[in-house]
Amino acid sequence: AMLRLRLLTWDVKDTLLRLRQPVGESYAAAARAHGLRLRPEALSQAFWEVYGAQSRRLPNYGQGRGLSSRQWWGDVVKQAFRLSGVHEDGVLTLMAENLYRDFCSARNWEVLPGAAETLRQCCQRGFCMGVVSNFDNRLENILSQCNLRHHFKFVLTSEDTGFAKPDGRIFEKALRLGGVPPEQAAHIGDDYTQDYRAARAVGMHSFLLRAAGQGEEPEVPPEHILPTLGHLLALIEK
User: Fold this and answer.
1) How far is residue 33's CA from residue 146's CA, in Å, rounded to a whole number?
2) Whether 36 contacts 213, CB under 8 Å
3) Where are the domains of the chain?
4) How do residues 96-147 score in pLDDT, each as one tens digit?
5) Could you tell me which residue, 64 or 170, shows the higher pLDDT?
6) Domain 7-16+112-234 is found in CATH 3.20.20.70
7) Helices marked H in the chain
8) Which of 47, 106, 166, 229 could form a disulfide with 80 if both were Cys (CB 3.0 to 4.6 A apart)?
9) In the structure, what pLDDT confidence band is assigned to residue 199 with cuts at 50, 70 and 90?
10) Chain-centre distance for alpha carbon 170
11) For residues 105 and 152, is the Cβ–Cβ distance under 8 A?
């Protein structure tokens, strides 16, 4: 039977947008502007180590700890460069500010293949659409710069709502904004726990974007798997 869906909610990172290059490449370029030669691979490794530790210590950009996401990211950038041997405070501060600005633009983000077309077709079919993303408050601007913002009635970030996926409250807020009960809504994302399972836990439908051969989660029926975004409408309209 055709799903009676009225609302579609979307994850962003690695669902609609992806980084144009590994983080270490962007950080190495920022360092070169200050005459510093650093290896991108080493910077990537330092970044993910620091980002992981900071996320555990201060989840959701330090929400409720009196930090702004800008400060949270600034600390991550500076610590990653310190691990890579850069210690001048003035240089660290400038690089952190430049990178925060650069990651707010289409300079570092690109639209995934098929994403713009799929969103356009979903809008044409009359679906209400929103974003539900574990992201900081730069997301609206990034979506605008990548020419996707106009597809969405609302953009919910974990920073703005105070709840990060898989917390069901961010999905419940999306349902309120969309004005639909959960059984008339579906969430599309690339993460089994934060997207697929979390949306289903509040009673929504969900589709997992996953290229062939990526980790197989036995609990996901094949009709909930999207090999590409282009497969979505056929599954919804079955």
Assistant:
1) 25
2) no
3) 7-16+112-234, 20-108
4) 999 999 999 888 999 999 999 999 999 999 999 999 999 999 999 999 999 9
5) 170
6) no
7) 23-32, 40-57, 59-62, 69-83, 89-102, 115-124, 139-145, 158-161, 168-178, 198-201, 232-236
8) 47
9) very high
10) 14
11) no
